[in-house]
Amino acid sequence: MIKSINPATLEEIGAVEETPIEKLDEIFENSRKAQKMWAKVPLAERARRVVDVNRVISTQFDDISHLISQEVGKPPDEAFVSEVYGVADSTFNYYSNVVDILGREEEVPLGFYESLDKRSLIIRKPIGVICVIGPYNYPFTIPFQQIVQSLMAGNSVVFKPSSETVLTGKKIQEIFDEIDLPENLVQTVFGSGSKLGNPLIDNAEKVIFTGSTATGKRIMQRGANTLTDVDLELGGKSAMIVFPDANLERAVLAARWGCFTNAGQVCASVKRLYLHKDIYDGFLDDLVRKTKELKQDIPTKPNVDVGAMINEEQLNWVEKSVKAGIEEGAEILVGGRRNPNFEGYFYEPTIMTAESNDMKVVQEEIFGPVLVVLKFEDEEQVIEMVNDNQYGLTSSVWTEDIEFGKKIAEEINTGSIMVNEVVYTFALAPTPWGGTKNSGIGRTHGKLGFYEVSRPLHINIDEYKEPDLWWMPYDESYKEIIENFKNIASSLVVKDNY
Fold first, then answer.
1. Are residues 452 and 444 in contact, defined by beta-carbon separation less than 8 angstroms?
2. What is the pLDDT of residue 321?
3. What is the pLDDT of residues 279-337, one digit of tens each?
4. Lesser CB count within 10 Å: N end or C end of the chain?
5. pLDDT digits over 443-479, tens only?
6. pLDDT range class, residue 498, cuts 50, 70, 90
7. Which parts of 136-205 are beta strand (E)?
8. Which of 158, 146, 343 lies closest to 232, judged by CA?
9. Percent of the chain having pLDDT more than 70?
């Protein structure tokens, strides 16, 4: 059995049976049978049947939110806004747009070949069986959205939730079981990645993984053996750049929420804060003061802002990282320790300053409630500092000059960048989600997300009545054809206009 432990109270809240490895072949066989049936259902009907999950979820808002809170350690209201509402909103968005995205033939201009009555079009087809491997930090919304897009596109899904959040994974399966889908179209397996990971990768047509960079690289290496396609949403070290003309009051609140939401266990959370020298002291003083006002406690209690971390291992990693930062010369302004008032996995909201962009606390992902603050002098310097990092998931620029903000944004090597906002773009279902560098490959959400869970099929149609000009025999008359082709090719040279 896999036990689920409340990280705030350390109480066992439930358990699920581990899936035997020897059962995976049967699971994938049943998945393929279901997928073949499902792919024959018209796209609009597939979408209509899948969107019915919103009906099921709408009757369980509080129950799902509290379950997430118990397993992850975040406040229930935060769980609802960032996870449950996000699922309902994104599912409706995908339902409303999937036919326009995947259901239309794309005509491909063929130029000269159209004169020979030839045309090409591209349609989108399902991939097959998609394995979704979910994370513990957002165990409901991240895999749910990936499953919904996969199903609407005509695929089946084998889902493995994190072993830290198996009850939320079980709840996801129960929700899909309540709607009108073929049997075995969505199946959930439980177990550690070390046991189930390789056979899942080997059997699936595609793997969508959200988690650490190290694990993502191993998945990609394994997938190379069978040419299994992968989408990897991995680590992050998101930067927030604040210029003097920004709305500083709003920016302070954004930095606080952007770092400490979900106890900092967010791949897109603000982890590097770059402040212009002219506002550095005042901004930092205000941020420290407001951070001290945050209430950390058992997340199901009233008015709690920051809850617990997921487990002892992650808590120890944060402690080790902060200690290493202090040894490098970082200064702790607030927090910097395990909260002594609780038995659970609580780490105090922490702000520390760094003198160098090369310090480990600046360069490495900590994945906890720790914000590192640095000073910059001008735009060229800060662009170089932000880009000098192995991760590239999200970042933000803060300025009242929007054109200037867009200019800076275009220079940042990241998957998404916000002007005067932080973190929240994951909630924008129509927009692509994913990163650069060690933050992963591929995109989920929106049109690009649907493209990732479908494959392009090129159909070429020929209504020419005569033999094609380039067909045999290569006789004397063929030479005249070749000369005509040479003339055409010569006309394709692009010449300067000056």
1. yes
2. 97
3. 999 999 999 999 999 999 999 999 999 999 999 999 999 999 999 999 999 999 999 99
4. C
5. 999 999 999 999 999 999 999 999 999 999 999 999 9
6. low
7. 156-160, 186-188
8. 146
9. 100
Checking if the pLDDT of 257 tops 70, the result is yes
Give the C-alpha separation, 284 to 334, whole Å.
Answer: 11
| Domain spanning 2-234+445-455: CATH superfamily | Aldehyde Dehydrogenase; Chain A, domain 1 (3.40.605.10)
370-396 burial, b if ≥16 CB within 10 A, otherwise e?
bbbbbbbeebeebbebbeebebbbbbb
d(C-alpha 358, C-alpha 314), whole Å = 23
Rounded alpha-carbon distances, angstroms, from residue 210 to 232, 233, 389, 391? 6, 5, 20, 15
480 assigned to active site? no
Range list for CATH 3.40.605.10 in the chain: 2-234+445-455
What distances in angstroms separate CA 58 from CA 168, 191, 228, one per listed residue?
16, 29, 36
What top-level class would CATH report for the domain 238-427? alpha beta
113 vs 162: CA distance, rounded Å: 52
Q: How many residues does the chain have?
A: 498
Torsion angle, CA of 110/113/116/121, rounded to 10 degrees? -30
SS3 428: coil
Catalytic annotation, pick one of 78, 164, 233, 348: 233
Distance between first and last Cα of the chain? 76
CB neighbour list of residue 338: distance below 8 Å, 6 or more residues apart: 315, 319, 346, 347, 348
Query: pLDDT-derived band of residue 22, with 50, 70 and 90 as boundaries?
Result: very high
